[in-house]
């Protein structure tokens, strides 16, 4: 393509020279303008070609690296989720300062094999229990957070890295003063495993 444009510029230049010899002042100006445009277009095409060739080289190197490593080594190099923790700041909160703690905030921390918190992809099921009640009445609420929702809930501070999940609590449950229990099931999309954890929260 670049070669074609270069040939076009040369032809245009020759035509311009011929017309100049015939004294075509207005045509000469038009051809000069077109020649300039063709030169700019040729430069842009040459730049795009160089960029494409560079990208092709990078991709070729990437493919070669992946082939040399092999699928087993690549899989071992990815994060490996080992556990899920519930941060100690998890609890019930009065968000509108009306005297009732109507919001449950759960801080979920996926942990890898080195003990670091990681933004693992997956989905989460959360349950709130009052284990002092009879079996049929112990479950106070349950919620599901999809993977699409979860990826927007990552909360990163200087001290903590975790998913911050917020749920509305039924008004009648917001009045209980006894300790409650939060249970979390985290389904890791990379391994397909489900990691479970629970934590008692004081009111």
Produce the secondary structure layout.
Layout: H1 2-21, H2 25-77, E1 81-86, E2 91-93, E3 103-112, E4 122-129, E5 139-145, H3 147-150, E6 154-156, E7 161-168, E8 180-188, E9 194-201
Antiparallel strand pairs: 1-3, 2-3, 3-7, 4-5, 4-8, 6-7, 8-9
Helix pairs in contact: 1-2
Question: How would you characterize the largest beta sheet?
Answer: 5 strands, antiparallel
Structural Rg: 33 Å
CATH class call of the largest domain = Mainly Beta
Distance N to C terminus: 72 Å
Shape: elongated
User: What structural class should be given to the helix and strand makeup?
Assistant: alpha+beta
Q: State the total count of DSSP E strands.
A: 9
Series of H and E elements = HHEEEEEHEEEE
Do you know the CATH architecture of the largest domain? Sandwich
Summed up, the helix count is 3
Helical content, roughly? 25-40%
Short summary:
The chain has helices spanning 2-21, 25-77, 147-150, and strands at residues 81-86, 91-93, 103-112, 122-129, 139-145, 154-156, 161-168, 180-188, 194-201. The chain is of the alpha+beta class and 203 residues long.
List keywords for this structure.
Immunoglobulin-like, 3 helices, about 200 residues, alpha+beta, single chain, five-stranded antiparallel β-sheet, four-stranded antiparallel β-sheet, 9 strands
């Amino acid at each position: 393509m670049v070669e074609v444009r270069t040939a076009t510029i040369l032809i245009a230049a020759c035509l311009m020279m011929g017309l100049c010899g015939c004294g075509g002042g207005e045509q000469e100006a038009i051809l000069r303008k077109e020649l300039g445009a063709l030169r700019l277009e040729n430069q842009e095409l040459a730049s795009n070609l160089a960029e494409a060739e560079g990208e092709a080289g990078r991709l070729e190197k990437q493919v070669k690296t992946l082939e040399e490593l092999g699928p087993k080594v690549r899989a071992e190099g990815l994060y490996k989720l080992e556990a899920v923790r519930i941060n100690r700041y998890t609890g019930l909160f009065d968000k509108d300062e009306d005297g009732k703690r109507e919001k449950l905030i759960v801080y979920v921390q996926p942990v890898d094999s080195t003990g670091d918190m990681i933004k693992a992809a997956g989905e989460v099921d959360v349950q709130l229990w009052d284990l002092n009640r009879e079996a049929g009445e112990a479950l106070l609420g349950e919620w599901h957070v999809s993977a699409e929702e979860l990826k927007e809930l990552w909360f990163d501070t200087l001290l903590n890295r975790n998913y911050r999940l917020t749920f509305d609590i039924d008004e009648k449950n917001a009045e209980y003063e006894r300790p409650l229990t939060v249970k979390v099931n985290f389904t890791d999309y990379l391994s397909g495993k489900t990691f479970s954890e629970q934590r008692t929260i004081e009111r």
